[in-house]
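Dock zinc ion; give full complex structure.
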Amino acid sequence: MFKELAKFTHRGYNFEGISEGGIRTSVVCSNLNMMFDIGSQPINYVHILNLLITHAHLDHFCGLPYFLSQRSLRNLKPPNIYIPKEIEEDIHQLLKIYQKLENFEYKFHLIPVPQNCFIEVTKNISLKAFPTVHRILSQGYTIYEKTKKLKQEYLNLNKNEILSLRLNNVELTEENYTPIISFSGDTQIEYVLENEDVRKSKILFLECTYLDEKRDIQKARKWGHLHLDEIIQHANVFENEKIVLMHFSKRYSPKEITEIVNQKLPKALQEKIVCFLPSRK
Ligand SMILES: [Zn+2]
Ligand SMILES: [Zn+2]
């Protein structure tokens, strides 16, 4: 269905998808069996098990019934659909109507995600939702790698001491959560400024709807979006290894996007930032 996919790889995580501001956004991370938003009908991704939805604007959400319908028709395992807790009931109602209209049952797990709580996805992967500032209720997702590390108080012990504690069933390790990926959905800059784990994620997918004076920062904020100039103003807050800009307004062609971003970015951001665009043939 997607003719030209955007692709991005970092630290062995592979992403592909499409993101066009106000039109459609859906980004798949195949290694994690995860799809962020579903603002299109990604037929090629019907096998993805975990779907994370940031908000109910249709350019991020409209593919949901089709995805569930296709998976159910194919008898695939019920997918996990992570959604903002506050819209759980509305989504249940919506899907009930689709099932009635289609006259068959969709199989799925709807998982309401409260903000700022760890939710386990697999043994080693957890997620957390952080609030974004947008025109409707909306949240970004941060994915964490979970590892075990020796508790601070045992760091100086030798092997025998550790062994004897272990034989006495003392809990020596604690869980350590490293933020690896954050995905903003639609937001104003506050999502970045107010959430440390978003700024510390190795990879940050960040919306950047507007780029130049056609719409200035004030107008972008009025619509609950980010402007490139605002990202540049806050260049020194980003601790991410890579920032992947997405959700560009269709006012700009892919060529213009690349040119404006390259021309405006300060040195500090040049190496970090990539634009999530289909590669040019
Ligand atoms: Zn959008
Ligand atoms: Zn939106």
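Observed: The chain has one domain: 6-275.
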